[in-house]
Structures are given as C-alpha cells and as structure tokens.
From TrEMBL:
<keyword id="KW-0597">Phosphoprotein</keyword>
<dbReference type="GO" id="GO:0097539">
    <property type="term" value="C:ciliary transition fiber"/>
</dbReference>
<dbReference type="GO" id="GO:0097431">
    <property type="term" value="C:mitotic spindle pole"/>
</dbReference>
<keyword id="KW-0175">Coiled coil</keyword>
<feature type="coiled-coil region">
    <location>
        <begin position="5"/>
        <end position="60"/>
    </location>
</feature>
<dbReference type="GO" id="GO:0034454">
    <property type="term" value="P:microtubule anchoring at centrosome"/>
</dbReference>
<keyword id="KW-0963">Cytoplasm</keyword>
<dbReference type="GO" id="GO:0051642">
    <property type="term" value="P:centrosome localization"/>
</dbReference>
<dbReference type="GO" id="GO:0000242">
    <property type="term" value="C:pericentriolar material"/>
</dbReference>
<protein>
    <submittedName>
        <fullName>Ninein-like protein</fullName>
    </submittedName>
</protein>
<dbReference type="GO" id="GO:0005814">
    <property type="term" value="C:centriole"/>
</dbReference>
<keyword id="KW-0206">Cytoskeleton</keyword>
<dbReference type="GO" id="GO:0090222">
    <property type="term" value="P:centrosome-templated microtubule nucleation"/>
</dbReference>
Amino acid sequence: MEERMRNVEQNLRNVKLLLQEKVSQLKDQLHRNTKADEMIKDLYVENSQLLKALEMTENRQKVTEKKNYLLEEKISSLNKIVRDLSPSPLTAVPYHLTRS
C-alpha cells in the first residue's frame, strides 16, 4: 500500500511538473501572441495612413493632369492666334512681274 502511495505521489509530482511546463509554454505563447497582436494593430494604422496618403496623391495627380490638359488647350489656342496674327510668308512673285 505504501509503495502504491509513493507511486501515486511520484506520478502526481510528474503530472505537476508537466503542468507547470505546459503553463510556462502557454504563458510564453500568450506573450508572443500579444506582441503579434500589437504589431498587427500598428500595421493596420500604418496601412490606413498609407492609403490616405495614396488617395491624396492620386487626387493631386488628377488635378495636375486636368491642369496640364487645360494648359495644353491654352497653348494650342495661343499658337493658333499667333499663326493668325503673323503675316503669311512672302509668296513667290512670278519673275515676269518683277521685271517691269
């Protein structure tokens, strides 16, 4: 009976050690999970900021493209005005008209 009690006590000690080791592993895993959760939250915030910056950049690009288009139209209009205002190049005068 005493030997059986000793075996039971030894088994209980072994189980206790195993449980303590398991608790230690689980605490370590919880710590790693907490760190990973914080990193995910930080990445989520950073991603949100990057998306906002991208949206602003895309909006600026659209505005710039519109301005460029308007400037190109103005340049085209100004070139047309300059062509209309400048005297036409001298046309060739026939040789027989110059010898009068």
